[in-house]
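thought: fold this chain, then report.
action: predict
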Amino acid sequence: AELVSRGYGGYSQPERYRYINWGYMHVARLTRWAWEETYGTASVPAPEYLINLPKTFKSLDYVVVTTADKEKRVEPISLDEYTDDWLPKNLTLSVNRGDVSQYVIFRNQIVLLPPPDQTHAITVYYHRQPVPLVVAGDRPITPPHMDEAVMQGAIMKCAQRASDQSRYQLASSALDEIL
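observation:
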């Protein structure tokens, strides 16, 4: 609706989504700031040991495990170490559970090792990346105060496609002012 109200109603809805995504990616590349850093906390009951990574996941900084009596940072292990030492084991058996001290990223999940023998609060500190906005409810990872910058980026892309140099320059100047 925003692009339509700004004079770009001639494009189809899928085209407008594409231009908004291009504007979003453009702004996200220009403004690599602290909003890329985030964290998530989950309660992981025994014998669960897998945490799904969000679609915006880019890189892991560290993992903190909290129990009733302590909090500690756990150490990463290599994929080779995981596939050699842990993958062959049945990690649901109580003999293979214990105090979580390690983790590995495997198949877009964090694998806690050994699997917890009690409920743990797991806090994952990570960097996220922008991913395309696909449906109406999707939100950019950029903070709300950057929404106008994203819109100016989308207008730049629309004007570029329409070969409207004047509107492109206006949107580019507006984006520069915001940033």
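thought: worth noting. The longest strand covers residues 57-66.
final: tokens above.
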